Amino acid sequence: MTDTTLDTDADYDALVVGGGVAGLTAATFLARADLATLVVDGDESILRRNAHLENVPGFPAGVNPRLFADMLREQAERNGAETRTELVEGVTGEAGSFTAAVNDGAAVTAARVVAASWSDLDYLDGLGVEARDAGSKRYAEEHALGRTSVDGVYAAGRIAERYHQAVVAAGHGAEAAITLLHDAEVPFYHDWVVPEGYFTDRGREVPPGCEEITAAERERRAAESRETMRAYFDGEHPDRQRTHPSLVDDDLGRVDDEWYDDGGGGGTVDGDD
Ligand SMILES: Cc1cc2nc3c(=O)[nH]c(=O)nc-3n(C[C@H](O)[C@H](O)[C@H](O)COP(=O)(O)OP(=O)(O)OC[C@H]3O[C@@H](n4cnc5c(N)ncnc54)[C@H](O)[C@@H]3O)c2cc1C
Prior knowledge:
The chain is of the alpha/beta class. The protein has helices at residues 21-32, 65-78, 166-183, 215-232, 257-262, and strands at 12-17, 37-41, 82-85, 88-94, 97-102, 107-115, 131-134, 137-140, 153-155, 192-195, 210-213. It contains 5 helices and 11 strands. The mean pLDDT is 94.
């Protein structure tokens, strides 16, 4: 049994369905607030089809999108989130005790659910989450700051009909997570890391969610950051480029060198986006 922070018998405080940009960002915020957080992800972020990601803040020359996805996942895990590569097939229950059926046959219980599962919302049908149908797409209706029509269920990123941009999905993931923290009455001011004395030298307690660190600890973290980023950017990412699945004869839309040599195309599979 996972050691949960919320007063609940559930395995996890929060289940995040979907580990793309929005879900992994939400998970990072939830785990950093000490919520026992599980991400169940089908490992098919739409971002993997991007050829070079040039508009996410912090990467002046852009970044390989598959590398970026790996980095988001490690960030969530380093902060304490668990991740599983599976699909959620259905969710039942109510706030405090949801049960998710996972396609490996497992049942996971969680006090709260964050849907960040572009482009699948069907697993929430049993809960009656309000949705908007738009052709082949289905979006969760958002009820302010990441909430859905069902108490304890949140929606983040493209599935909540936010703009189809990575940074927007990330921001919305953070927003939905912080809304969840407030709704669950988790003590929280801001998720900030500040230099030693920033609050305490002004006679204030360090607020919940914040951390004061010493100069030595700051240098240790900076060195770890440099080492980690050097390793990430040392060499090419091994995953093949993806494209729209209807363009290549590969369910995952993977493009190989021969495809380029042949001029591309000729596939059989339908897909969105
Ligand atoms: C070709 C292309 C190029 C793009 N280029 C850019 C760009 O240059 N810049 C930019 O800002 N944006 C770009 N985007 C858009 C960007 O990729 C998306 O807006 C962003 O990824 C949305 O994030 P998300 O977390 O909502 O969804 P995703 O990143 O798609 O993540 C959703 C995750 O949920 C999982 N999932 C779905 N259903 C389930 C389920 N039932 N159980 C478990 N997991 C599930 C999926 O497997 C997936 O991993 C591009 C998109 C495409 C298609």
